[in-house]
Amino acid sequence: MAGLPEPRRTWSEDDRLGWMRDIQARLRWGTFTLNPGSIAANSTEDVTATSDDVAQLRTGHHVTVAPPSSLEAGLIAGGAWVATNGQITVRIANVTGSPIDPDSATWTFQGLLF
Question: How far is 71 from 101, CA to CA, in rounded Å?
Answer without folding.
Answer: 11
